[in-house]
Amino acid sequence: MDYGIEVRDQEAVIRLRGRLTFNDHAKLRALIGEMGQNKLRRQVLDLSSLEFVDSAGIGMLLIAREEMERASKQFVLRGAAGQVKRVLTVAQIAKIVPIED
Amino acid sequence: MIGGTTQETSQATAYRARFTRLLAPGLPADRLDRLAWELGLAPATDPAGSEPLAALVTGSERNGAGLMDADALWLPPVAAWIEPPSRTDASGLARLLADAAGNDLYLNLTTATAHGLQPGRRLLAALSARLAPGWALEGDRRDDVELALHEAVSNALVHGNLGVTAMKELNARELDRFSRDLNDRLADPVLAARRVVIALRIDPAENGRPLVTVEITDEGTGFSPGPRSSSGASGRGLGLIGEIADGLEIEDGGRRIRLGFRL
Questions:
Q1: Quick check: A37 pLDDT over 80?
Q2: Do B237 and A56 touch (CB under 8 A)?
Q3: What is the C-alpha radius of gyration for chain A, rounded to an integer number of angstroms?
Q4: Which stretches make up the Histidine kinase/HSP90-like ATPase domain (chain B) (predicted)?
């Protein structure tokens, strides 16, 4: 998995690319740090270029959400498609995290 | 396609290994020739042809680099990938080949090698390549089967062979702990050398529909499947696997999982 951060006026958009699995622990840790450091209150994870996520990947997204809450930031998942959308649905993540198309 | 069920059945099991050839890209030609001769196999320099072929993972193609990344080596006629334990002689290798025989695909790899391979994705591609055209995995079902395979192999490597506990709390400190444990244990030569064995079989089931069986065995301390918990960040993904697979058996104290998929 790779990611890029784009800081806009109202929100920071973090685009994830590739496959998010247990093996991306270090990248997710770095990503959570970067989201905490930028000044914007609204942090959007753009999942439209993410091809695959596993159960540990979902867990890491939930950790990111917890850490943003701790930092009083809003955390949103956006644009999930294909396998990623399916797993988010099956795991009922929408009950915990706002999901936008 | 010519012929009916018989044709499909024989095609489904056509790659079931009675090996005739040995491929070992990491070995010098003279050593490959000698080893192949001792095993009664023909040495092969590439995976062309149609006769089932066993490939040895040695030397430079380990750790996900090099030849194991070549797509062709996951397709028929390659029917086994074996990373021989150090100092394995021909008779030791013959025993591993006997284990491999009777499967449509057999992998016997160290944790260090398997960890770098994204084996779930590879297994899905390998399975797809071995199915008759009418039974192709598509759409959601394809995604689901890939996820189940990925979760099962990840469990064997991370929780089984490396003994890393799943993330239990939803915070960055727990993510750090998981990260540290995983890196430390991969760096431990004893744990990194533990093996994972993956055996895939495609059998005709009722109505001629294929039944895919995937057995994944690790060398960890095992586990007892307990009640499912939704509080942790990563469990064993067993709930997901159970929802996707048509059959799920856990054996040998949690060191072996057998998944069944009806196509």
A1: yes
A2: yes
A3: 12
A4: 125-259
CATH number at residue A60: 3.30.750.24
pTM reported for the whole predicted model: 0.90
**Cβ–Cβ contact A87 with B under 8 A:** yes
What average pLDDT score do residues B75-101 get?
A: 89
The 10 Å Cβ neighbour count of residue B118 is 18
Which residues contact residue B60 at a Cβ distance below 8 angstroms, ignoring those fewer than 6 apart?
B26, B66
For the segment A51-64, the average pLDDT, to the nearest whole number, is: 95
Cis peptide before B43 (omega within 30 of 0): no
Look at residue A58 and tell me whether its pLDDT is greater than 60. Answer: yes
Cβ neighbours for B130, distance < 8 A, ≥ 6 positions apart:
B12, B15, B76, B104, B105, B200, B202
Collect all residues of chain A within an 8 Å Cβ-Cβ radius of residue B120: 54
In angstroms, how far is CA B176 from the centroid of its own chain?
29
CA B134 to chain centroid: 24
Amino acid B192: pLDDT: 95
